[in-house]
Amino acid sequence: MKKTILMASFLGCTLALQTPYLDASFKKGASFFAAFATAATYRHYQTTMIPIAPEITVENLNIISFEPTTLDATVTKTNSMREVITQIPSKNPIDTAIALEDGRHFTVRNAIPKLKNPTDTIFIYCHGWIGNFLGHPLRGKGIGAAATYNYIKRDILQGVTIAFDFPTDRPQSFNLAQEDDMATVTLILQKVTEINPDARIVLVGDSRGAATILNVMTHADALVVKNVSAVAIECPPISLERVAHDLAWHLPIISSLVHTCVQYALPRYTPGAHIKTVFNGRPFSAHVPIFIGRVMCDSQTHHAAIQEIADHIQKSGHKQVYLYSYTPTLQQQTRQLVWHAKMAQITEYQQAVNAFFKRHSLPHNSAYAEQGIAALLESTQQ
After folding, report:
1. Is the entire prediction scored with pTM above 0.90?
2. Cα distances (angstroms) measured from residue 271 to each of 233, 258, 292, 307
């Protein structure tokens, strides 16, 4: 019976998307619900969807480091990032260099480097849930390195950067920013701090990665985050239940089915269960500046929810909260050029986040930082 309801819901939403006079927000919600229903029905037929808690070890995280370098006689090999990623699943040693179109070069290794200057900065990039419910070819095979490289190419990450794969990317394991995701980021922080005890650490992430960063900063042991000097995140959801709630808002007649579909597609999701969020942890460290980006038409993480996060952090006494908002043009909205957790491709966002890094004496693109000063000042929470 449930399978029939799900399929009927999918067909109804698909027809709604073809109706020209329906409200755009309704169509957007219908499209997401159709995706949920499709994925849920497919997964139900393929497997019993037993929840799986992944094993979290350093070996399972596919850690990759990017270190700015100057090509010389000691650097004998330069590969494209695609070639590097193909080597990640084999677990063989990786020690190569890649050249960017703008002339920058990065040494790439599958190990956490020891900084030449002990007090330099290390960025740790925490990726979102990339792909869809039916999968992504790079999940567990270097997807974190691929996402991190995109941020490096777009001049957001300028210094030594650590990438990794969340081991919770399979639908059976996914439980947004909860214990397993937090344990993964905690482990990375511990290993980076062991090798570089005096380094300044900057946590950067989007979507699931952004939410996990918030939870680690407010729930993990204070010693784990003692070296974190700044946080820069985009499109952080409060929780999976809040995401489902916001999706259901677009379809009030069948809102309960949205949660059912999410439960089928992601079996570790339990509506009403006690979960960890930035709202029920300790206050966000007042000495750690935080930059938050949001897209005003984001239907996966509603802009109002992100405003709640920024307001909550500020109300705890934090004086360095920056909330950058981007409203896509009508053409961008129509073509979905700017969507959830894709702010890295927006020039204005690149400028604003570089201005944030410059203000707090972190590695940055000087030209972008100068161009982003006004946007950064505008984003300061009052």
Report:
1. no
2. 25, 11, 26, 23
